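Workshop exercise sheet. Pairs work together: one partner reads the sequence aloud, the other fills in the structure field after running the prediction. Swap roles for the next sheet.
Pair: D.N. / O.F.
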Amino acid sequence: MKDFRSAARTVALALVGVLTSVPSALPAPVAPAAVEIAPHRAIYKMSLASARSSSTVSDVRGQMMFEWADACDGWTIEQRFQLRFLYTEGDQVDMTTNYATWEAKDGQSYRFNVRKLVNGEVDEELRGTAESREGRPGIARYLKPEAQEIELPGGTMFPTMHTIQLLRHARAGDKVFATTVFDGSDTDGATEINTVLGLRKELANDSRFDAKLFHGATWPVRMAFFPLTSEEAAPEYEMSLSLLENGVAQSMLIDYGDFTVTAVLEKLESMPKPRC
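Structure field:
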């Protein structure tokens, strides 16, 4: 059941812009640039894009809601998605995931709460906190599924800070960016992500979406994900992402090797700004 289990981690990481290579490394200095994340709620349609003849997956369908909000002292992310996997032997698996996090705006503190259901029954629950420490190892403390602590490599980022750093590198014209990211979507700890940044493009107008959110520059991003607990030379999965300069993800293509899943933006709206 690797296919649907890894999908939960994939989506959680992808929509907050994770990337690149060199574990334990701090991001290289880049030219100062103002990155303004746009609080927003987005709905994505998910479906099977392609499958090799050797794939056991015959179809994937579903929908995902992604909400990124400003909480004054931090950023909150809420993600809910439902996926149905159909297999060539006739089996069907329905997966529902609820993912909620809070991250301090200085990128040093993080809280996460994840609940996964398979065919209507609770499959896994994760809850905990994490701290990132510049120049020395950080720590993740799990309360669920059981109490445990995991050391995080020095320089590990949480999702929002990683997105901000990514956009700064993209604006500076960098082609690669390297770091490790922890999101709390499983108990494996941080993930090493190798990323290549494409050329800046101006986003074409689309009357379906609010022009205040859907505008400006966008970058094509290609990522490869390597769990630090794995010794495999090949990535666990890869992903292509179209990322707007305000943090909105226009689309994704998730590559599991023998099949790919696409996520296409269907609805986009602004989240209200808090009175801090």
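Discussion prompt: The chain is about 10% helix and 50% strand. What would you look at next?
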